[in-house]
């Protein structure tokens, strides 16, 4: 009888999940996969956490959990648009954001033209955007959106693997836009989303004079 291994190397996990080794490491850092390091510094990923993804993982998870938080029922949900051309990262975004307590309405796009159309349609409260995307790139998108009437209340966060020098060489980003490095810190993204959500709630429920 064949006995299934209780742990895998990162290469084995990548092969099983059909993702890159780098994405496995990112999922481990984000808590989506459970792993530890051997004495020699090699990662070992639990097969249990791999199986959880295989049987109802990122691609199968809905945008929001089945049990909706009370505040999501009584008020309009936080609208989030994620623009990223890496399919594995989009899966990770959808999985991690689906666990956020404010139960955001999440849409994703992998190119700039589609993203601009999504911005017009969704009117997102929060936009997470990579800069190296096909079609209209992130730099062009930011120039189009920055200062455009109707989007003054939209919070934009750039999540990029470009270094500060590379950003400067390509013209930089508007001063009012926060830039976070890759690999993605979902704790930071959640902190930002929580602030935006609180501000949105305040606008919808103004205090009587």
Domain unit count = 2
Terminal-residue CA separation: 73 Å
What is the share of helical residues? Answer: 40-55%
Overall shape: it is: globular
The gyration radius over C-alpha positions equals 19 Å
**Which residue ranges are poorly predicted, with pLDDT under 50 across at least 5 consecutive positions?**
57-75
Q: What do we call the CATH topology of the largest domain?
A: Rossmann fold
Largest sheet: 5 strands, parallel
Strand order of the largest sheet: 5-4-6-7-8
H/E topology pattern = EHHEEHHEHEHEHEHEH
Relative strand content: 15-25%
The average pLDDT is 81
CATH superfamily descriptor of the largest domain = Response regulator
Structural class: alpha/beta
| CATH C-level category of the largest domain | Alpha Beta
Overview of this protein structure:
The protein is α/β, with parallel strands linked by helices and 209 residues long. The protein folds into two domains: 7-54, Multidrug-efflux Transporter Regulator, Chain: A, Domain 2; 70-204, Rossmann fold. 41% of the residues lie in helices and 16% in strands. It contains nine helices and eight strands. Strands 5-4-6-7-8 form a five-stranded parallel sheet, with helices on both faces. The chain has a three-stranded antiparallel sheet with strand order 1-3-2. Helix 1 packs across helix 2. It is globular, with a radius of gyration of 19 Å. Mean pLDDT is 81; it is low at 57-75.
Could you name the key traits of this structure?
Multidrug-efflux Transporter Regulator, Chain: A, Domain 2, globular, Rossmann fold, 41% helix, 209 residues, five-stranded parallel β-sheet, three-stranded antiparallel β-sheet, alpha/beta, single chain
């Amino acid at each position: 009888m064949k006995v299934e291994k209780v742990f895998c190397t990162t290469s084995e996990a990548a092969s099983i999940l059909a993702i890159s080794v780098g994405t496995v490491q990112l999922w481990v850092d984000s808590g989506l996969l459970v792993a530890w390091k051997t004495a020699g510094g090699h990662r070992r990923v639990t097969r249990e956490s791999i199986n959880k993804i295989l049987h109802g993982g990122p691609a199968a998870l809905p945008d929001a959990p089945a049990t909706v938080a009370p505040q999501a029922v009584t008020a309009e949900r936080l609208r989030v648009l994620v623009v990223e051309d890496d399919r594995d990262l989009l899966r990770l975004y959808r999985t991690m954001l689906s666990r956020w307590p404010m139960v955001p309405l999440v849409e994703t796009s992998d190119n700039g033209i589609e993203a601009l159309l999504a911005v017009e349609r969704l009117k997102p409260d929060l936009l997470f955007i990579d800069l190296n995307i096909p079609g209209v790139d992130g730099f062009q998108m930011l120039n189009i959106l920055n200062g455009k009437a109707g989007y003054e209340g939209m919070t934009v966060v750039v999540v990029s693997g470009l270094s500060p020098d590379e950003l400067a060489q390509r013209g930089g980003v508007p001063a009012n836009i926060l830039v976070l490095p890759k690999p993605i810190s979902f704790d930071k993204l959640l902190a930002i989303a929580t602030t935006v959500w609180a501000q949105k709630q305040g606008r919808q429920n103004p205090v009587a004079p």
